[in-house]
Design goal:
Shape: globular
Distance between the termini: 78 Å
Number of domains: 2
Largest sheet: 5 strands, antiparallel
Strand content: 15-25%
Number of helices: 4
Order of helices and strands: HHEHEEEEHEE
Structural class: alpha+beta
Helix content: 25-40%
Low-confidence stretches: 17-27, 169-198
Mean pLDDT: 77
């Protein structure tokens, strides 16, 4: 190769490296695929066994109890599953990661709380109850806090985003208790201003699509 050709080759190589080095990364922000989470995936057979066990050991008990505490003759149908579309899940994860980053805290887990909608048409604040009496769940991200793994919300305090434990005691009570202790008895303290607004960003997801047993469901029965 002559010296002239060598110079042209090196110039072309430099120009190509400069061009590709200036391009934006093509990643969409999602983690690279590393295969399934092996410790968390169960077989279809095991899912069937667990579904059937719930049908046999829980569904009839829930239905009997719910029917016993209402005055009308309406029959209660226990919820068997709830679902979100994939884009909603992705949007939720992006949202809580954004809020956690703003508060300089790491999300440790996603905690799923079993719950029930009240037997009412509205919540105390006037919001409509989407599924009166129905079983449900909500999702809460957690963080490390004083050696514990706790659910949290994000609040602006003195102009700074701060991660606040959901069940942290109200300031009015902290003077009478050991400083920094958590309320283990309940999900949160209802009088705590940090969970009742005032600049708080809740990270809890609920109001999925709830379903009783469909006519034909994934596990081959109607219970």
């Amino acid at each position: 190769m002559t010296s002239k050709m060598t110079n042209r080759f090196l110039l072309l190589l430099f120009a190509n490296s400069l061009f590709f080095g200036c391009q934006e990364p093509t990643t969409n922000g999602e983690p690279p695929y590393e295969g399934p989470p092996k410790e968390n995936i169960i077989s279809v057979e095991r899912a069937q066994e667990m579904y059937d066990s719930y049908s046999q050991r829980r569904v009839s008990i829930i239905q009997k109890y719910e029917d016993s505490i209402v005055q009308d003759s309406s029959k209660f149908t226990p919820t068997r599953y709830a679902e979100y579309d994939l884009n909603t899940i992705k949007q939720y994860i992006a949202y809580i990661e954004h809020e956690a980053k703003a508060a300089n805290v790491e999300i440790k887990t996603l905690r799923f709380y079993l719950s029930n909608y009240p037997n009412s048409s509205t919540f105390p604040n006037g919001d409509a109850v989407k599924y009166p009496r129905r079983n449900s769940f909500f999702v809460l991200p957690t963080m490390a806090y004083e050696g514990n793994n706790v659910g949290f919300s994000v609040e602006e305090i003195d102009g700074k985003y701060t991660a606040v434990p959901i069940n942290k005691r109200p300031a009015a009570q902290e003077g009478n208790q050991d400083n920094g202790q958590m309320n283990e008895a309940g999900f949160f303290v209802s009088s705590n201003a940090t969970v009742q607004g005032g600049g708080t960003n809740s990270l809890i997801m609920n109001d999925s699509q709830l379903s009783p047993p469909p006519p034909v469901n994934d596990f081959g029965n109607n219970n």
